[in-house]
Amino acid sequence: MKIYRYKYKNATSYGVLKEERLFRVSGTIFRKFKIQSDSVPIGDVILLAPVRPSKIVAIGRNYKDHAVEMGAPLPEEPLIFLKPPSALIGPDEIIIYPKASKRVDFEGELGVVIRKKARHLSDEDNANDFILGYTCFNDVTARDLQRKDVQFTRGKSFDTFAPCGPCIVTDVDPDHLKIKTFLNGKLRQSGNTKNMIFSVSYLVKFISQIMTLNPGDVIGTGTPSGVGPMAPGDRVDVQIEGVGVLSNRVMKIK
């Protein structure tokens, strides 16, 4: 099932995609909901970020090849950091190139959307019970500021630095998905989630031991090798098998 959040005639709704039409959802997507009979062509709506999270939890160096390209050791535990909800944008929205940075990178990732509150999960808990589905995510990074500051907050947190979408897919295996990132149509990243150091299930449980995960929260699970800089005017596309394509352009504000 593909769940979209969208705007149509100034109203914001959730809908389920069937044959290029979005059928409106009543009730909350985080519990049992009903799919209504009224629908609208997906081409007639504005797609929005699929959720409005209380927080975005991201994972650093979760692919061996990316750790190698960054010249960093493999983590013994998940390396977690936060991106603020104010960084979130949806499909086709603009990534703003900040004046403070001279190098802004793309990082295509699988995003995990939390379905219900997860706190202090144990090894015996089934992490899938707490996951609504999966989406495309771009952990945009001001690389020069990240290196300058050592810690990640400033370089990861600018407004528009968390593109997410285009939808939430509920029925894919997160441990075996091809992930690709294109810059202006040219392939820059090509990986598979099977190569993650820490699996989705492990990450959900690990993070829940540190902070409560709320419905709608997003986990960015790390990026494969091939990250690189973007420039104003560029288009970046994150493509994940079975999920879709998240497209955004880069602009610099004068």
Tell me briefly what this model is:
By secondary structure, this protein is mainly beta. The chain has helices at 64-69, 143-149, 153-156, 200-208; strands at 2-8, 11-18, 21-26, 34-41, 46-47, 56-60, 79-83, 88-89, 94-97, 104-106, 108-114, 131-138, 141-142, 162-169, 178-183, 186-192, 218-220, 228-230, 235-240, 244-252.
Describe the protein.
- The chain is mostly beta strands and 254 residues long.
- The mean pLDDT is 96.
- Helices cover 10% and strands 43% of the residues.
- Strands 1, 2, 3, 4, 5, 6, 7, 8, 11, 12, 14 and 17 form a twelve-stranded mixed β-sheet that branches.
Order of helices and strands: EEEEEEHEEEEEEEHHEEEHEEEE
Q: Round the mean pLDDT to the nearest integer and report it.
A: 96
Structure classification: mainly beta
Strand content: 35-45%
The strand count comes to 20
Low confidence ranges? none
Question: Which percent bin holds the helix content?
Answer: 10-25%
Indicate the overall shape: globular
Radius of gyration: 17 Å
Distance from N terminus to C terminus (CA atoms, Å) equals: 41 Å
Main beta-sheet annotation: 12 strands, mixed
**Number of DSSP helical runs:** 4
